[in-house]
Design brief:
Radius of gyration: 19 Å
Distance between the termini: 48 Å
Order of helices and strands: HHHHHHHHHH
Structural class: mainly alpha
Number of strands: 0
């Protein structure tokens, strides 16, 4: 029997806190059962498996991340939107390392397809890039460039990987400047043309 007051939402929220405190890889059913003072079996009334728990955590964290990005980019376009997007991304990655790691985990594509949070992430990200006049396949290429840059920088920063005396914040700001220039002068693939669709209509 499930313990009174224990819900799927509470279990996932506790998993998110545990991920930030101990690392996403240390989120287990047993660890959460100890947290709630119950047997492992009690949690299986709310989750199907460890993979189900981690998938729910990934989707919840992804929702948190895109909510912050959406609030940051609201009413902005071009470089202002890119800068706000990047800064919100980095702030979340550095202040919620376990939750952020969850967003980078592999999730079944059928689950992704039905996730409002991940669909919203695509909408906001592609909308921002369409303001630069990009169309497919350039949009996907640009998304991969941004994701690689943001994730790589945050991972190195969080792990203490930057040893040079240059201020890390200044390097970050310059990286965003460089991305803006790259997006404004994107080398469109042959056979494609910029759409010019404004961010508000994306």
């Amino acid at each position: 029997m499930a313990r009174a007051g224990l819900t799927t939402e509470r279990v996932v929220a506790a998993a998110a806190d545990l991920a930030d405190e101990a690392g996403f890889e240390n989120v287990t059913v047993s660890a959460l059962a100890r947290h709630f003072g119950v047997k492992d079996a009690s949690l299986y009334s709310h989750i199907k498996s460890l993979q189900d728990l981690r998938t729910r955590l990934a989707l919840a964290a992804g929702g948190e991340l895109i909510d912050r990005i959406a609030a940051a980019v609201a009413g902005r376009a071009g470089k202002d939107a890119l800068t706000a997007f990047a800064n919100a991304y980095r702030e979340y990655a550095l202040t919620h390392p376990g939750r952020y790691a969850a967003t980078q985990s592999r999730v079944d594509q059928t689950t992704v397809a039905g996730s409002p949070a991940l669909l919203r992430t695509a909408e906001i990200t592609y909308g921002m890039l369409r303001a630069y006049g990009l169309d497919e396949p350039d949009l996907t290429d640009a998304v991969r460039l941004l994701r690689s840059t943001f994730h790589g920088y945050c991972a190195l920063e969080a792990g203490g990987g930057f040893g040079a005396p240059r201020d890390v914040q200044k390097s970050w700001d310059r990286a965003i400047d460089a991305l803006h220039v790259a997006l404004e002068h994107w080398p469109h693939e042959a056979g494609t043309r910029p759409t010019g669709t404004p961010l508000s209509e994306a």
